[in-house]
Automatic annotation (TrEMBL):
One of its GO terms (molecular function) is ATP binding. PANTHER family: ATP-DEPENDENT DNA HELICASE (PTHR10492:SF74), PTHR10492. Residues 212-394 form the Helitron helicase-like domain. This is ATP-dependent DNA helicase. It comes from Cuscuta epithymum.
Length: 1228
């Protein structure tokens, strides 16, 4: 009512539905907006306009501005009038706006503007109350040209809102005039950190936003704080204040790290020698660093830190969940003295919970109530209504582990205590540790999802504690007749949450104690890494201005959109409490090759200055080598063990002996496909006391040329004799070309430890056809070639195959590289391959396609081609269900552009779908999209790389089956294309996908992104139409089913039309009648199999009739498939069908399960991960230990092997040969 500004965040109103205490909850990016001084003609005055317009009826106008009639009835006009008079008399901001009112009334000037001044001229600590002249300036006539960076110019009249800068001193006073009744300044940038350094040029000079708010939000006896007594307004102020903190941090990232780039020192030196002076053309963009608390990289790093603790201390033994209790006596006593409720003071809630949490950790670690604790990890979460709770992992010492059911019973109870003998304990369990009521007795309970309890209560009765076959505890829950009545519903032992009596009685809160099942607790604790923050179904907003111009999209907004901020979470962060805790701490250890340490620099930096920086020459890795040479005790430690005895000093960039404390080390993770980097990391986990890079490559006084050879000498790599035997076996029936393809596939998969060894032993098999091919190519039947020439030609063939797959023999340093005079081999092979299409053939194909397009398809084709030919760019989505001809349009567009010598990049979300596209690839392989993208991911495409040049040259990008991919994949490509194409035109940075024309296609009725254990809202929010990209997307629809046109029989046509309509109704969600996402659907009887016997036998006979006869027609198997819901059903069907093939003998292949030797330096891991344990692992994405096959058995690939040959995830083949090491198969 009295605010000058409005808030820009989205307030969650649904959280307050019901009778619970009110909570202020905000999502999205928050900001404050201010309108013009006077309302637009015909509009009612709002916010600041109430201080100027029609002030004779100001009190009535303020009451009218409250739209909610229920709230309006509770307002008192006399109180409103009193508050207005108070503000008129004391508030300098109000006086500033009254000054405008008086000026307009005095001269009727229509061009009066008010400048809100962003900087003060006096010391913020000395003068707390600014004067009117310091706060605002009246501008009559033209705008003031001296508008400062933080200044805000409020115009006389207009419809546009202006955003107040968070660092403007009046930012808080304008939004909360009743909390700042004098119009006093909020945060100012010039508040000195201390008196001693106010004039210093070194160290910190000013107070941060967070520190300022933390100071203002503390009780002080000599200060009467309006803010702390504001109840619900205090909740809003806390959330609003925290958004200032976060906004200032992200503003720094946007203004600095948006230009911040990183590249290896060696790469910069080479660029400098080549004459490159512009730093912006080097390196990859950094979007959001791991130091930003709450970001995706932050969570990933902390997850890896937890796993480092796990490697050192063993798997966790106990998992505790500690929830804040707002009825703790400390909180009740404090609030009752001030006549407040718990929701009115989130600061007290957080501070008391933090003290309780610290006390709990002290009990666990120092007081050892469960025994010796080696390590503790916890993370803080906030419930839907905002209360904090902690998930705690305890790693016990070997002597204090709980190895038997009796040990578990000693510390964990899941039963109702006897009320007569222990009434206090009974009441504590009743108050804090009973789940429910839920289920049939309370179907609307919060835990109920699809009519089932999401926490799986009630549990089963259990006479004794035991561990099930999956390693999960089944606690003792005896059927002893004890009950606790809650909401008139009796609850027995099946509803008791496991707990520890001592902790429950001491802390008087919900404190769940669970015995752990190895690594699952680590994954749950850092669930953000896999699932992401809690999300809701997205809402869409207008993204164009009234004149039709495009509004810029702020990518950092994605971070804000991913979660809600409640008062307790905001307060927790303002007070500086950690949301993730580890003890012992983990030092993250980086490593690099000589002169390849990462250097961080701005676009504007001169590379000569960057290269000459002292910090560039002394990295953490180099300092480790120096310390090994300097300290004798260092020679007994690996790099990962180093932080246990030494401390890294960032300022002096050196390691010094540790005097106190303890820390673990974690060497930065590198995937196996990274070549020498991976091998170097393997060595670092074992090598002790290395003083140089050469020392790292030395084993038994022999210095090896590569880290891979060093790993082999250390026994870290397996022998490749199995691959040699496989090539030898295959040479008797496979062609030389097929063996070269096999060798390339093994190179791409990084399965061979020493590929040059396999090449030396098997090159003759892979080159068996070289001489014949050269004789035929040169029409020289008497041609002879030396052994070296034959090898060179075979290597050329392999290099050609690798380059078509985006790799080169140069990526495998141990492999020989061919001598080649053909220059096209060394140019951009990606562009070269895309330009090899026959123009005449493409024109002929295009003409035939154009004749077959229907009206809808022609309109789609025309719209897209106009965008391409006009170089307008644009994002299109061709939406149509299966059979409407989307793939036919891709074929037509590709032929049209390729006939003119242009490049089209056709990609699909899956390998199988990409096979249907002309020249198709999977999107991940084409654009190097991260396997697990986050909201801040970018593609691994460097500036000036061959792939970047290919993208620049391309005219069109087609992405089929887009709905099944996570929106982060599209957003990662968008960021990368903006970065790559800004080299062509700087304005491309502000265009979707850098101004490139991109066409998506698919059907939202089909499979959406798979979100593991995600809700319906999670899945919806992960789709492309929930991305910011969708606002720029033009949707083109196809509705005519082309598959129905090819049917000759009227009866077949009618049956298929009926089936197609039923399928469409399923996709549209109308098959089950009106519903909210869940409905019972009746499946037509004519497509159901009726069976009174074995259902597997029934479906096999129906799908594969006469399978026992093993039909030889490939189409018999190609046109049939059985979909199974679980892995167990898959195994049952496979076993049944394999047994039907009685004409062939079966052969069973076993996996080779072992631990990477470089990571098995902990005894507990070696003991846990026995071959027997590894052989029993059965999980999605992990192949079974045993695979039984017969000749003639149909199989399906589960990974992309070679896209150019159609060997993708989902490709179906039939087994033709069973060898000892190699299988022969034909694609169906």
């Amino acid at each position: 009512m009295f605010s000058f500004t409005s808030m820009g965040g989205r307030v969650d109103q649904t959280i307050n539905i019901g009778g619970s205490p009110p909570v202020f909850k905000l999502s999205g990016q928050n900001y404050h907006l201010i309108g013009s001084l006077l309302p637009v003609e015909g509009n009612v005055p709002k916010f600041a306009q109430l201080y100027i317009y029609d002030t004779q009826h100001e009190d009535a106008n303020r009451l009218t501005s409250v739209g909610d009639e229920k709230r309006k009835k509770k307002l008192h006009a006399d109180i409103v009038s009193t508050l207005r008079q108070m503000l008129d008399q004391h508030n300098v901001l109000v006086k500033s706006f009254r000054m405008v009112r008086d000026k307009i009334a005095e001269c009727g000037h229509s061009n009066v503007n008010l400048k809100l001044i962003g900087r003060r001229s006096r010391d913020a600590r000395t003068y707390n109350l600014p004067t009117v002249s310091e706060v605002a300036a009246l501008i009559v006539g033209d705008f003031d040209e001296s508008l400062g960076q933080r200044d805000i110019m409020v115009e006389t009249q207009g419809g546009a809102l202006k955003r107040i800068n968070e660092l403007n001193p009046a930012y808080l006073g304008l939004q909360y005039p009743l909390l700042f009744p004098y119009g006093e300044d909020g945060y100012r940038e010039d508040i000195s950190f201390s008196e001693s350094n106010s004039k210093s040029t070194k160290g910190r000079r000013s107070v941060s936003v967070r520190e300022f708010l933390a100071y203002r939000l503390h009780d002080r006896g000599a200060e009467n704080s309006f803010i702390l007594k504001a109840r619900r307004l205090f909740q809003q102020f806390v959330v609003d204040g925290y958004t200032m903190v976060e906004s200032s941090r992200l503003t720094y990232i946007r203004l600095n790290q948006k230009q911040l780039r990183c590249a290896m020192y060696k790469g910069l030196s080479e660029a400098l020698l080549s004459g490159e002076r512009d730093a912006s053309t080097q390196g990859k963009r950094i979007v959001l660093p791991p130091t930003f608390v709450g970001g995706a990289r932050y969570m990933v790093q902390n997850y890896q830190d937890a796993m480092a603790i796990c490697r050192w201390a063993g798997y966790p033994d106990l998992f505790l969940t500690f929830t804040c209790n707002p009825k703790w006596p400390e909180i009740v006593r404090f609030l009752s003295e001030r006549n407040l409720n718990p929701e009115d003071r989130p600061d007290i809630i957080c501070r008391v919970f933090k003290m309780k949490l610290d006390g709990l950790i002290k009990d666990l670690r120092q007081n050892k109530i469960f025994g010796d604790v080696r390590a503790v990890v916890y993370t803080i979460e906030f419930q839907k209504r905002g209360l904090p709770h902690a998930h705690i992992l305890l790693f016990m010492g070997n002597a204090d582990k709980f190895t038997s059911p009796a040990d578990i019973d000693r510390i964990i109870s899941a039963e109702i205590p006897d009320e007569s003998s222990d009434p206090d304990y009974f009441n504590a369990v009743k108050m804090h540790m009973m789940h429910g009521p839920c289920g049939r007795d309370a179907k609307n309970a919060p835990c109920m999802v699809q009519s089932k309890c999401s926490k799986h209560f009630p549990k089963n009765f259990n006479a004794h504690t035991n561990i099930d076959e999956d390693g999960y505890p089944k606690y003792m829950r005896r059927d002893d007749g004890k009950e606790i009545v809650k909401n008139t519903i009796p609850l027995d032992n099946r509803h008791v949450v496991p707990h520890n009596r001592y902790l429950l009685m001491k802390y008087g809160a919900h404190l769940n104690v669970e015995w752990c099942n190895q690594s699952r607790s680590i994954k749950y604790l850092f669930k953000y890494v896999n699932k992401g923050n809690d999300r809701v179904t997205a809402a869409f907003y207008e993204t164009t201005n009234k004149d039709g111009s495009e509004k810029p999209v702020d990518e950092i907004k994605l971070y804000y959109d991913c979660r809600y901020v409640s008062p307790c979470e905001a307060m927790w962060r303002i007070l500086g409490f950690e949301i993730q805790y580890k003890n012992p701490s983990v030092e993250r250890l980086s490593f690099h090759f000589p002169d390849e340490q990462y250097v961080y620099f701005d676009d504007e930096d001169a590379m000569t200055d960057v290269v000459q920086r002292e910090s560039v020459k002394q990295s953490m890795f180099l300092a480790w080598m120096k310390a090994n040479d300097q300290y004798a005790e260092a020679k007994n430690l690996t790099y990962a063990e180093f932080p246990q005895k030494f401390v890294w000093k960032p300022k002096t960039r050196e390691f010094v002996p540790r005097k106190r404390g303890f820390a673990l080390g974690r060497v930065a993770y590198v995937p196996p496909g990274s070549g020498e980097s991976y091998y170097l990391r393997c060595i670092l986990n074992l090598k002790r006391g290395a003083t140089s890079f050469a020392d790292l490559r030395t084993v038994d006084e022999v210095c090896y040329d590569t880290y891979r050879d060093t790993c082999y000498a250390l026994g870290l790599l397996d022998d490749d004799r199995e691959y040699v035997e496989g090539f030898t076996e295959s040479s008797f029936w496979a062609t030389a070309w097929g063996l070269r393809v096999l060798f390339v596939i093994l190179l791409l998969a990084d399965t061979m430890s020493r590929p040059e060894y396999v090449w030396d032993k098997c090159w003759n098999y892979m080159s068996d056809d070289i001489l014949h091919r050269q004789r035929r190519a040169l029409l020289h039947p008497e041609l002879t070639l030396t052994e070296e020439e034959i090898k060179n030609y075979a290597l050329l063939e392999i290099e050609t195959m690798l380059r078509t797959r985006g790799k080169s023999l140069r990526d495998y340093p141990s492999m020989p590289f061919p001598n080649c005079s053909n220059a096209t081999m060394f140019q951009n092979r990606l562009i070269y391959d895309e330009l090899q299409y026959d123009h005449a053939e493409m024109r002929e194909q295009h003409d035939k396609c154009m004749e077959s397009l229907n009206e809808q398809q022609s309109e789609v084709y025309k719209t897209i081609m106009e965008s391409i030919e006009g170089n307008n760019g644009g994002v299109f989505f061709v939406y149509g269900y299966g059979g409407t001809g989307k793939t036919f349009i891709w074929k037509t567009l590709s032929a049209a552009l390729r006939s003119k010598g242009e490049i089209v990049l056709n990609v699909a979300s899956s390998g199988i779908a990409s096979l249907l596209l002309p020249g198709g690839r999977t999107a991940h392989s084409r654009f190097a999209i991260p396997i697990n993208p986050t909201e801040h991911s970018t593609c691994n495409i460097k500036q000036s790389s061959p792939l970047a040049q290919l993208i620049i040259r391309s005219k069109l990008i087609v992405w089929d089956e887009a709905p099944m991919m996570h929106k982060y994949c599209f957003e990662a490509l968008d960021r990368s294309l903006r970065d790559i194409l800004r080299v062509v035109d700087p304005l491309n940075t502000n265009k979707p996908f850098g101004g490139k024309t991109i066409v998506f296609g698919g059907d939202f009725r089909q499979i959406l992104p798979v979100i593991t254990k995600g809700t319906r809202q999670d899945i919806v929010n992960a789709t492309i139409n929930s991305s910011y990209i969708w606002q720029d997307c033009i949707v083109l629809r196809l509705t005519k089913n082309m598959r129905l046109q090819s049917l000759s029989s009227d009866r077949d046509y009618a049956d298929l039309v009926e089936f197609a309509e039923w399928i469409a109704s399923l996709g549209d969600g109308t098959a089950g009648g009106q519903n909210d996402g869940c409905a019972d659907i009746k499946i037509p009887s004519d497509i159901l199999l009726q069976s009174d016997e074995d259902p597997i036998a029934t479906i096999v006979r129906s799908t594969y009739p006469d399978f026992e006869a093993m039909p030889t027609d490939p189409s018999f198997l190609k046109e049939r498939a059985i979909l199974a819901p679980t892995l167990d059903v898959v195994d049952s069907i496979n076993e049944y069908m394999t047994a039907l093939n009685v004409t062939e003998e079966s052969r069973t292949y076993l996996s080779s399960d072992s631990i990477c030797k470089s990571d098995s330096n902990s005894d507990f891991l070696a003991d846990l991960h026995t071959p027997e344990f590894l052989n029993k692992i059965r999980a999605s994405g992990v192949p079974n230990h045993e695979l039984t096959l017969k000749v003639g058995t149909p199989v399906m690939l589960l990974r992309n092997i070679d896209h150019s040959m159609g060997l993708c995830n989902g490709t179906r083949l039939i087994i033709t040969r069973l060898g000892n090491h190699v299988l022969g198969a034909t694609i169906l």
